Structures are given as C-alpha cells and as structure tokens.
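Hi support team,

I submitted a single chain yesterday and got back a structure, but I'm not sure I'm reading the token output correctly. Could someone confirm the output below corresponds to the sequence I sent? I've pasted both exactly as they appear in my results page.

Thanks,
R.
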Amino acid sequence: MLGMWQDRVRKWLLAFFFLALSLPVAIQQTALALLLAFLAYGWIAARVAARPLGMADAPCTPPQVSPSLSTPLNLPLLLFFAALLVSTLCSPAVLHSLAGYRKLWLVGAFFVTYSLIEDVREAEWLVSLWVAGAAVVAAYGIVQHFTGIDWARELLGKPSNLDPFWFGRHEGFRTKGLHPSGITYAHNLLFPLVMVSVLFFSPTTTRRQRLLYAGGWGLMVFALLFSLTRGVWVAYLTVLLLLGVIKGRTALPGVVAGVVLCGLFLFGAGAGVRERAWSLFDLEQNLGRSQIWQANLDMIRERPLLGWGYGNYRKFRDPYYRRYPGADTTAHAHNTFLQLWVDAGMVGLGAFLFLFGVILQRGWAAYRCLTQEPWRSMILGCILGVTGFLLGGMTQYNFGDAEAVMVMWATVGVLVRLAAETPLARRSTASVW
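Hi R., thanks for writing in. Yes, this is the structure output for that exact sequence:
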C-alpha cells in the first residue's frame, strides 16, 4: 500500500513517462530515470520498513511503499544477459564490449511499468495518454512533411536536418516526428498505431471513442507513410492481417477496410511515397541492403557460436564490408536477428528468441483466458505491437534504437502486468503485488 503522496508521485511519473514515449529520446530517458529512482526509493523504503524494531534506534513510521522487483521475466532476462556476458568474455575485445552494456539500462522501462502500474483501469488510462500523445505527434509529422518544420532541433538552436524526398521532385520532406530520423520515428510509431487499431475493434469501445480512434489512426498512418520506412509499412500491414485472423468475423471486414484505406492513403500521399513503395520490388534499389546482410553473414561464419561480443560490431566490421562496395551503410546489420547473431553468436540469438517466446506465450495465454474488455484488447494490442517490433527487426536493427526499444520494453511491461492479473496467472502463481 502506497502512502498518499507517494501514490500521487507514482501516478504523475507514470503519466509523464507514457506521454514521453512519443517525444525526443532525452525526454523519454529523463522520464524513465525518474521512474527508476522512484522504484529504487520504494524498494529501499520497503526493506527499511521490514527491519525488526530492535534494529532501529527508535520506533518510526516508514513510507508505505513496497514495489517488488520480482517479475515473471526475471529468468528469461537473466539467461539473455548471461548469454551476452559469455559472448563478451570470449570475445577478442572484452573491455570494449563491456562498455557497450550501458545501452541495456533501457530494459528498466519493463521493470517500472510492470512494478508500478496498479491495476487494469490505470493501465487503460496510461495507454490512452500514450495513444493521444502519439496522435498529436503524428499530426505534427504530417505538417512537418509539407512545411519542413523541425522543432526538435530548432528549439536547441540547431539547423533542421530533414531529408527532402529524393525522387527528383520537390513534394515534401521525410517525416521524422520528434526523432533523429524517419526510420526511428516509424519504429516508435508502430506500437501506438497497432494499439489503436486493436482498441478500435474492442466490443466495449463507444461510438465516440471509435471516432477518436479512427481519427488518430488516420493521422498515424499518414505520418507512417511520410516516414518512407518500408519495413514498418510491411510490419504494420502484416500485423493488421493477423488482427483480422485472430478476431475472426467480428473484425475481419473492418480489417479489410483498413487495408483498403491504407492502399488509398498510399496512392493519395504523393508520387514520391508511391515510388518508395514500388522500390520494395526493385532488386537494383535493394542491392545495398542485400550486401549489408552478406557482410554480416561473413562475420557470423567467422564466429558463429559466441559472436564478436556485444558492442564490438563497429570495431571488427570494416574488413568484411570492404568485400561489398555496394553496401550503403555500415552502421549496423539492418536486421535485429543478424545483428544479435554477429554480436552474441548463436547462444545470444537463441536466448533472445527464448525471451520473446516467453513474452508472447504469456500474453497469448492471458488473451485466451480472458473475456473482460478492454483488458483483453489491451493485451492483444501489446502482443501484436511486440510482434510488429520483431517483424520490423527483419529490415532494421530496431533492438539497438533507443527510441524504439524503450517503447518496446514499456509495452512488454504493460503486457506482462496485465497477464499477471488474469485468473489463470493468479491460479498458477501468487501475485507479486
């Protein structure tokens, strides 16, 4: 049981965090750091409160905060990080690899959402804030496409670095929202877009809510199209079709209508967007991406089992990329699964797949045992959001993108939190709250 002021702080910090998920990464990380500090405070205060009175100098009434750090994912997460560590210790540059571990603190987004969200009703409120914030940023992204405004940099006194469409026509800019690039923005946007798509079909959604969801959906789809990120386009359409299959006759007509609308939006969004879509089928335009993958497959062949060590990619990549002059970037493998295989070998990739297999299995089991709405739809929205993240990882190393991975871990936190409150979970294990 939280004290009154602690509970108020918890709610405000959670609200700030979920609104920040669509904002620049500095704001995202600030919100996460504040929540982690609050979680640490609550854990320490709970340990103090548990001390026998004889150990204290005088009786006192400690703050009534008792968040738990025990989660259903502790073991899979431990196995994943252990696999990364084994790869590091067996790598040709141990210290350099260890320096890369600083990026992994973003998994804290899972722990704070899982540990601090109080109940289903609060989760619904936070998801609503998140979706509303994403719709506002999407509206800004559409304006950005036509006008070239770039507030994220202009407010810092920096010149805009928006990319104009590169098809020989002056028809707009590549939307990036409040993020560093259109690719980053698209992978971040995918999660709230999937959630609003699922909530639209919830049987308890009112007509007014459905109109709001439809408006937010339209804004997000146009912003996604203007991001020119083909991998996320394919991931979203795949997830939308999966939604129709899962929901069956109750949602299939609406899903088909959504796919048709996406097609109409695509053809109405401008010649540059259409040409970008057709480039999916142009082997010459995709040569650079295929050569990136070939270079990474060569790296895997050298160290297939334990990899080169997490964080060592840039240190050892150059000789392999020199074999493929058509590769248009060497920043990463442009594929989450290839990147993890290069970094941590088959052991690390296996641990990663096991972790996400557990996440999706727990979510699916919870979805199947529930009938209450919108609880059930929020779980499905999280499942499909994580699925979309993995599909998007086929063409981009989104697991290494802070703006996307923080949203992913927050979504996993909501999913596992909601799943832990189902009757099935309560019967199988005592709740940690």
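A quick pointer for reading it: The chain has two domains: 1-67, 74-289+315-428. Let us know if anything else looks off.

Best,
Support desk
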